Amino acid sequence: MSVVLPTAEMLPTPERGVWVAAARDIKLAMRSKGELAQALVFFVIVVSLFPLAIGPETALLKRIAPGVVWVCALLSVLLTLPRMFQQDYTDGTLEQLALSRYPLPLLCAGKMVAHWLTTGLPVAVVAPLLGLQFGLDSRELMVVVAGLLLGTPVLTMLGAVGAALTLGVRGGSILMALLVLPLYIPVLIFGAGAVESTMAGLDAVANLSLLGALALSGMVGVPFAVAFAVKISLD
Amino acid sequence: MLEARSLTLSRGERSLFEALSFAVDPGEALILRGPNGVGKTSLLRVLAGLTRADAGAVFLNNLKLTPLSDAQRAAVLYLGHANALKDEYSAEENLTDQLALDAVASSREARLDALRRVGLLMQRHVAGRKLSQGQKRRIGIARLLLSERPLWLLDEPTNALDQDGVALLLQTVDQHLAGGGAAVVATHLALPLRGPARELTLQENAVTTPVDRLAETQ
User: Fold this and answer.
1) Which residues pair with B209 in a beta bridge?
2) What SS3 state is found at B53?
3) pLDDT for the residue numbered B201
4) Contact A98/A231 with Cβ under 8 angstroms?
5) What's residue A6's pLDDT?
6) Cis? peptide before A14, omega within 30° of 0
7) How far is C-alpha B12 from the chain's CA centre?
8) pLDDT band (50, 70, 90) for residue B169
9) Is the pLDDT score of B154 beyond 50?
10) How far apart are CA A216 and CA A196, in angstroms?
11) What is the pLDDT of residue A130?
């Protein structure tokens, strides 16, 4: 399978850095598809464990569905975070990224785009199928997808900061989880809250807007924070 | 071209170098020498901007550099211990990928020519994980051939290279110097460069003696 991506020559500088980095990471991810599928399979299996464990109690399943889907999405994104920088750090690519003519924040933004396309997006796409197991109706499923589409970029961005900060630290992946999980709480509350309010017959717009606001404000600031963290790790 | 003014760096309790000053002119190479662990790599990383010095500054064409500033990133090509190669990529893809990050527009012919010059043309489809250490180093040389940056910072570039490889490296560096570039090379080998080369010997306990002999070898 080959991905068609805009080649570097087709785009202007220095924004091109975003695409250079994103195309690179996506191409690399496509080379190790097993690793790519892991997070998604993890998500599917863990979400499916709940109906099996609880049994056919439709009311209860439906009650816990938003929380279960969101917690599992969060954990599967967390699983993939080390992939974003660890390999590049070990093989020396990260030094070269820092020394690249493209600004490091833009390259980091590209890495985050690639990470979201290979983790957050697939999770959001399969979520409705899993939601069916919990007896969610079509309107609720749509809110689940909308919430995940808006919320998973935030998970990627916050995670990138944590992943960059814990590079080269012994036991870094546990430390990263401890660092990142508390920051994920607002996303979890708004995401699950959106589905719950739909179930209660209310409008989900408020919660979804908050997720969108988080995502937008993250896009402005997070690339710089990640670049800063990468520089600290390399020093 | 490059000037270091009273650079000081310590790692924990240990002082690596103190008030170290030197200059490298265009067309000139500076060879860094000294025992293992004396701070040659750290010095190169300071010159590249990857590590911040405790004191002192690096100047490029009399312009003071902020670490990893645009000017520094545009000027410096740093080849460290790690080759920055991907196991999943072939030799050619690795080179293409590195040049894309360097923002160097190169034609496929130019890349194949560079691979031919470093003797990897036939191995260009071999995956990174199957390349030998020396072959990985040769991809680095191919990158040197194509990346148009004036200041090369090379950390033990001869590691794992065979005799032909070392000769190729010397030739590449000489060509770079002849074109008005400069290089700082940390090495334990004698590097018989054709151009002017200065030697800087780092010593234990921060006693640094710059052996400022401008040696015209050959």
Assistant:
1) B201
2) coil
3) 87
4) yes
5) 45
6) yes
7) 26
8) very high
9) yes
10) 23
11) 92
The predicted structure's pLDDT at residue B206: 52
Residue B14 has what DSSP assignment? E
Q: What is the DSSP string of B110-178?
A: HHHHHHHHTT-STTTTSBGGGS-HHHHHHHHHHHHHH---SEEEEESTTTT--HHHHHHHHHHHHHHHH
The answer to whether residues B92 and B124 touch, using CB atoms and an 8 Å cutoff, is yes
Amino acid at A15: E
Candidates A2, A24, A99: best to mutate against B (most CBs of B within 10 A) is A99
pLDDT of residue A85: 94
B157 neighbors B183 (Cβ within 8 angstroms): no
pLDDT(A174) > 80: yes
Who has greater pLDDT, B104 or A118? A118
Beta-carbon-side half-sphere exposure of residue A122 (alpha carbons within 13 Å): 17
The three-state secondary structure class of A223 is: helix
Mean pLDDT, range B78-100, rounded to an integer: 91
Cβ A96–B101 below 8 Å, yes or no? yes
d(CA A105, CA A227) in angstroms, rounded, equals 5
pLDDT at B204 over 80: no
| Residues whose CB is less than 8 angstroms from the CB of residue B216 and which lie 6 or more positions away in sequence, other chains included | B196
Instruction: Select from A89, A80, A76 the least CA-distant residue to A169.
Output: A89
**pLDDT at position B188 over 90:** no
Interface ipTM: 0.87
Across the interface, of B82, B88, B103, the residue whose CB is closest to A92 is: B82
Region B48-62 average pLDDT: 91
Q: Do B80 and A9 touch (CB under 8 A)?
A: no
Cβ distance A99 to B84 less than 8 Å, yes or no, reads no
Taking alpha carbons only, the member of A110, A119, A176, A106 closest to residue A151 is A119
Report the distance separating Cα A105 and Cα B84, nearest Å. 19
Tell me the CA end-to-end span of chain B in Å, nearest whole number. Answer: 24
